[in-house]
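quick one
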Amino acid sequence: MSERFFAAQPSPEEIRRRMMGYTSWLEINLDNIEFNLRNIRERVGVEVMPVVKNNAYGHGLVPIVAYLETQGVAWVMVAKLREAEMIKEAGFETEVLNMDVLFAGEQYRGVVEKGITQTVYTLEAAERLNKAAEELGREAQVFVKVDTGLNRVGVRHTEAAALIEEINGLPGVKVRGMFSTFQQRPEEDRVALRRLLAVDEELRSRGVKVEYRSMSSSDGVFHNPDGWLDVVRPGISLYGVYPEPKDEASGLKLRQALQLKARVEYVKWVEEGESVTYWGRFVAPKRMRVGTLHLGFYDGIPREMANKGKVLVDGQIKQSLGSVSLNHYLVDLTGVKAEKGTEVTVIAEEGENSLYKTAETAGWMTYSLLNHLNPLMPRVYFRDEEPVALLEP
Ligand SMILES: Cc1ncc(COP(=O)(O)O)c(C=O)c1O
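structure w/ pyridoxal-5'-phosphate:
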């Protein structure tokens, strides 16, 4: 299916033509995702289940899953049922683990019908899946979420073996795996791992073997080899972003995949002493050439970037000016070659306005910055510097 996805895309020339009309867009370097996936795989030596929730951390769900499928990825993980449905509707063979909770009867039927693997941690949910499976003459697949100390969701580790055994006994349900989430605190994480392994041991003593045991997200991939088990679940690292400097120091080499670009919408001269945009937060200290970009906090630019943002234009880093509007972002264009339509890199792959640096400037987590990118912005996917796919929501 993934080959068909890429074969059905417009030609590189057509994609470049359409890009000329974009006011703001994201460019995703698939070679960097390949680099990250390869390095994660080599590091852990076990199966990798990329986390593609939240629109693949802003990178665009369907093209990213298509690409991962070309790289031999067998499983992906989502947080919303709708995302799981979109992957199945696109016809991918990749197995999808859905973390979303189900409330309505038709949702239980839907996941069984579509072959989505469902996260469960109560007998009630498993029984509802079992009923749907029996009605449809199909088998429901589940991963059981075990709470090993995070106290968010999941069956308490002390009760997990009994629940998994019971679910496994339901005729229409197959337990494919069990997973848990670390707190990302070394001491507590050692305890959490012991708890999950104890569940596994108890299950084995009762004659139940669970195919996949999983504990690690990116933090575990960086720092906790004991927690790799049968499958790891990296999100942010797959997209080439280190949440913190200690993560880069772990030695795992990553390359940021995403760039945010915009075209200059309007250029004007502002006189010394004049302010720009709301509340007069920037007053020109001299006559300045000011450009307006057509993107703002609707698109994910933090409002904390007021007067602090850095963009790359005509090979130079220039400063943002004044407050960030919902749909406008003002930048200093004094001394650079830029007109209406000139391309500006708002978030670059590296350097002073990398995603990490931009988040740091705003006082945001890298996670927040990635996960607030407007899903309606077009996404363009590159391989060997050629545009190979397009997402125009
Ligand atoms: C259960 C689970 N596993 C894995 C991940 C991926 O986390 P990260 O992006 O830190 O790798 C997440 C994301 O929050 C998650 O909820």
